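Task: sequence design from structure.
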């Protein structure tokens, strides 16, 4: 069986000028695999490389600093099980699970936010505003108040996110789902769920209410490998689906009629995208709590860094990962020895970004 491997080739844009013109622009490389192709943007690749290096630097700094400083060579050796016993204890048992959980949760929130901003064609169309995060928070608070274990809280959080998504999608569906209708219905459902959260907190035991209040803020404190591994499995299963969805979603950003004109089955694609985004949001919330504004800010920051006309899923994942781990590092170090939950830091960053975004839209 003869099969040729995928080749990275530079081909001119079919709609561009003749190849023999002296002023022809440098073509973008295209990765082709049978009937599937991916146009690679040089600026996007450079932005992805820069964000990846920034994430690596922040992760190494988070693994190195603390009450006990671990040199970078000892960190690398400890990750391979060949470091000093103290370094292996600190890195493998305490810091590495927290850092990895932050990276994975941030990536899940980033992709989820990019999906819903693409579907709604609205920079505010993130799970925070549509109400899905509120549904996950309601399920988690109910499990905390009922005395559930860590796995039961995570399961209730995921179930709450899924149920909320079903309700919002059903209420917003009218001969299809329009982006503005999805946002408005999600805001209304989210407001109802927030009121239900506060009702449960006021009726709960004081100790349970304190535990639920700490969880609803969003935190990476005390996270272990048992929190990181489920998120890693979810990303491994859902990221290929999101990669397949990226091209139809970009076409749907031009409008449903334009997408149908090129053969996109709009409603099935939108339904699959909603399912993938909801699952990513639910799994991330189950692992770290309802961390605010990461899903909102990460896709827009990635779009501005890459100068892309629409949201980009891979860069949104990288930006979300770096944003969350950077916010967690700032929450640990800026007010030391007091450590703040990461949700407080992301809310502060997200609030500043939201003001900037609204001011930019006003201009």
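Answer:
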């Amino acid at each position: 069986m003869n099969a040729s491997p995928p080749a990275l080739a530079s081909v001119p844009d079919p709609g561009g000028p003749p190849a023999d013109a002296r002023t022809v622009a440098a073509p973008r490389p295209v990765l082709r695999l049978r009937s599937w192709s991916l146009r690679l943007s040089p600026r996007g690749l450079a932005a992805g490389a820069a964000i990846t290096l920034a994430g690596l630097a922040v992760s190494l700094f988070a693994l190195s600093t603390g009450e006990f400083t671990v040199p970078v060579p000892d960190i690398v050796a400890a990750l391979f099980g060949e470091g000093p016993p103290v370094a292996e204890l600190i890195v493998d048992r305490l810091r590495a699970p927290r850092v990895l959980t932050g990276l994975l949760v941030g990536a899940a929130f980033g992709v989820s936010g990019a999906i819903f901003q693409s579907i709604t064609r609205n920079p505010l169309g993130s799970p925070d505003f549509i109400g899905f995060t509120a549904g996950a928070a309601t399920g988690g608070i109910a499990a905390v108040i009922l005395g559930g274990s860590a796995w039961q809280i995570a399961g209730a959080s995921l179930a709450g996110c899924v149920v909320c998504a079903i309700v919002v999608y059903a209420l917003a569906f009218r001969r299809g789902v329009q982006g503005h209708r999805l946002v408005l219905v999600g805001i209304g459902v989210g407001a109802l769920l927030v009121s239900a959260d506060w009702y449960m907190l006021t009726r709960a035991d004081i100790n349970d209410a304190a535990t639920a209040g700490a969880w609803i803020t969003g935190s990476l404190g005390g996270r272990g490998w048992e929190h990181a591994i489920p998120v890693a499995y979810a990303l491994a299963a859902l990221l290929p689906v999101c990669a397949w969805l990226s091209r139809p979603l970009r076409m749907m950003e031009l409008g449903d009629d334009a997408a149908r004109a090129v053969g996109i089955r709009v409603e099935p694609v939108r339904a699959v995208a909603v399912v993938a985004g909801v699952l990513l949001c639910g799994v991330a919330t189950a692992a770290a709590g309802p961390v605010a504004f990461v899903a909102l800010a990460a896709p827009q920051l990635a779009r501005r860094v890459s100068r892309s006309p629409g949201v980009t899923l891979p860069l949104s994942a990288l930006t979300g990962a770096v944003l969350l781990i950077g916010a967690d590092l700032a929450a640990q170090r800026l007010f030391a020895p007091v450590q703040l939950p990461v949700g407080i830091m992301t809310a502060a960053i997200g609030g500043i970004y939201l003001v900037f975004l609204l001011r930019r839209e006003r201009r």
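The two ends are 60 Å apart (CA to CA).
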